[in-house]
Design a protein that fits this description.
The chain is mainly beta. The protein has one helix and eight strands; from the N terminus they run αββββββββ. InterPro entries: Secre_tail.
Length: 115
């Protein structure tokens, strides 16, 4: 069973290899009065850094990178300028990760692949 799940994950990852990830996110569901946010994550798969474009500028944002099991691996607290972030991921092993960005202006969560 574990092998089957792992094989499915590898097939899905291969289909995304070499493409920027384009997401429409704003938490789980956007309330009616809130606009849906479009972000781009690249490169995906990443080696040293991931770039996230389309964020709202913020004086203080909590950035959390976790594995697919929800274990927190990296935590940062940065200011978002020019609607973008560059997050170092060189210390991570190859695999699938989630990045969560929480600030007063937004909550964004997306996944990326590290090779």
């Amino acid at each position: 069973m574990k092998r089957m799940v792992l094989m499915c994950m590898v097939v899905l990852l291969c289909s995304y290899a070499g493409q920027a990830q384009d997401n429409t996110l704003s938490g789980n569901q956007a309330p009616q009065n809130e606009t849906v946010q479009k972000i781009k994550v690249f490169p995906n798969p990443a080696t040293n850094v991931i770039n996230i474009l389309g964020l709202k500028n913020s004086l203080r944002a909590d950035i959390v990178i976790s594995d697919i099991y929800g274990n927190t691996l990296l935590k940062y607290q940065w200011q978002i300028k020019t609607n973008a972030l560059n997050i170092p991921v060189a210390s991570l092993n190859a695999g699938i990760y989630m990045v969560t960005i929480i600030s007063q202006e937004q909550k964004v969560q997306t996944k990326f692949y590290k090779k």
